[in-house]
Design a protein that fits this description.
One of its GO terms (molecular function) is RNA-DNA hybrid ribonuclease activity. This protein is α/β, with parallel strands linked by helices. The protein has helices at 32-37, 48-61, 73-78, 81-100, 117-128, 146-162, 164-170, 181-190, 205-210; strands at residues 4-11, 20-28, 65-71, 106-111, 132-138. Helices cover 42% and strands 16% of the residues. The protein starts with a strand and ends in a 21-residue tail after the last helix.
Length: 231
C-alpha cells in the first residue's frame, strides 16, 4: 500500500521585506520518482523561470495537495523567527491532514527549523498516531527529499509573486534581501522620506544600520505598526 508523503519547507525567512511563506505538500509515495523526472529539486538551484516551469508541470501532471501559510512581517517581528516558522508548520500539517489524509501510513519530511524537531515530531504523532512511520527534520532536506523540494519550489514561487504588489505601491525594492543592492538602495532612500510600510521587518538588525529611523528593538504586536506617524 502506498504511503502519504508530506514535505514542508519555507521561503523568505531572512529578508528585510515581505512575508515568509511556509508550504506543505502531500503526495502518494508512488509518484516520488515522477517528481524527480519533472525537474523537482531544491528551489535554490533553479532559476525563477525553472521554478515556475517545474511547479506548473507537477501541478498539471501529478496528483498533489498543498497548503501555504503566509507569515506577515508584523507577526515575524512580534515573535522569535523559529517560533513563527514552527507555528506555521503546525498549521500546515493540520490543514494537510484535513485535505489529503485518508487513514493510511504517513511519512513527513521537514527542512530544519532550529530547536523545533522534538516539538514538531510530537505534534505530528498527535495528528497521525501509529500511522506516522517516518518523521525526518534535517538541514538541506530540500536537496534530499523530493516532497520537500516541491514544497520549496511552491513556497519560493509564491513568495516571489507575493512581493510584486509592494513593488507597484512603493517602488522596486528588488528581492527584499539585504544582500540585494536594489533592496539596500530602496531602504536607505525611502526611509528618508517616508514611515516604514507594513511589509518591512522592523526588528531586523540590518535595518538598524540601513534605516535607523525604521528600526525597532522591540515590536510586540500589530498595534506597534499602526500608531500615529508609523504606518
Amino acid at each position: 500500500m502506498h504511503r502519504l508523503v508530506i514535505g514542508i519547507d519555507e521561503a523568505g525567512r531572512g529578508p528585510l521585506i515581505g512575508d515568509m511563506v511556509v508550504t506543505g505538500v502531500a503526495v502518494s509515495s508512488s509518484v516520488i520518482s515522477r517528481l524527480e523526472q519533472l525537474g523537482v529539486r531544491d528551489s535554490k538551484t533553479l532559476s525563477p523561470g525553472a521554478r515556475s516551469k517545474a511547479r506548473a508541470a507537477v501541478l498539471s501532471e501529478v496528483p498533489v495537495s498543498f497548503v501555504s501559510i503566509y507569515v506577515h512581517a508584523a507577526e515575524i517581528d512580534s515573535k522569535n523567527l523559529n517560533t513563527a516558522t514552527l507555528e506555521a508548520a503546525k498549521r500546515v500539517l493540520l490543514l494537510v491532514r484535513e485535505l489529503a489524509w485518508r487513514g493510511g501510513e504517513v511519512e513527513i519530511y521537514v527542512d530544519e527549523i532550529k530547536g523545533a524537531e522534538s516539538k514538531l515530531r510530537r505534534f505530528s504523532m498527535e495528528l497521525y498516531g501509529d500511522k506516522l512511520v517516518v518523521f525526518v527534520m534535517e538541514p538541506e532536506a530540500d536537496s534530499k527529499y523530493p516532497a520537500v523540494s516541491l514544497a520549496s519550489i511552491i513556497a519560493k514561487t509564491l513568495r516571489d509573486e507575493s512581493i510584486q504588489p509592494g513593488r507597484v505601491l512603493f517602488g522596486d525594492y528588488g528581492s527584499g534581501y539585504s544582500a540585494d543592492p536594489k533592496t539596500v538602495k530602496w531602504v536607505t532612500e525611502y526611509s528618508k522620506v517616508s514611515p516604514p510600510p507594513l511589509i518591512v521587518r522592523r526588528k531586523w538588525r540590518n535595518l538598524e544600520r540601513l534605516a535607523p529611523s525604521w528600526w525597532k528593538k522591540s515590536a510586540r504586536s500589530l498595534l506597534d505598526y499602526v500608531k500615529r506617524g508609523e504606518a
